[in-house]
Amino acid sequence: MKPTPAEFVATLNAGKVSSVQITNPGSNYEVPPILYFQGGGGEGASAQTTIEVGSGKVLSVINLEGGNNYTQVPSVLPVHPIHIERKQRNRIISNSSMLAVSYLTSSITDTSTTLNLKNVWYDVSQKNGFPDEAEILIQVWDGTIWTTERILYGAKDVNANTLTVATGGRGYGGTTARANTIVTGTYSSTGTTCTVTTGSAHNLVNGMSIFLDHTTGDGFDGSYIVSNVTSNTFTVTYPFSRTASGNVSLLPEVRLRSL
Q: Structural domains in the chain?
């Protein structure tokens, strides 16, 4: 049985991660997950966990290293250690799962029931992608910090690239249903450095990842790590040198919770 991912919230003190709260213990972990700290502008934070035998729930956070130079609270992600099992002469990798990932392409309100995504797909033979119904996580700015809304959906349309939210599916699992606005702006690149200027505050911090959808011009669409952040600008590094400019949209990540 695959684990139900645990969820965590970090607390900062003087640029260091001073504590990590377990907001959802998850279940079915066979080995304790390692905590990965993403974003926040700093570096070096790390932690391990302990789990309850039988239920596989996360019981505590241990061996916390606070890191340095965090200016905002980083996201805390549980990472499954890779476990190699010996079975006869073959080796298989367990404790892993391919998750479906896409990006929200149209703004939604806190009551929207149709989600327009970059790509909705499903491979029946491999059982990868978005199944007929499941739970997704959407990255969202709540006005103060980056957080996540859990959403249940009950139908998919691979031709229209949409998910239809199930009844009561917004703000699922103790999260809050929130409006999610697609931030737009312009970009200009010289060499491999691309500067993005947004029409409103993007709320990103150095080290965060965002998907850039270049709606005009010859920019490279894709997920990028941002740097040199101000309230309405940031830079990314293109994979190849290119002089280009045009309009761009910043698309929030949509991730399948489990398969």
A: 7-89 (no CATH), 101-180 (no CATH), 183-251 (2.40.30.180)
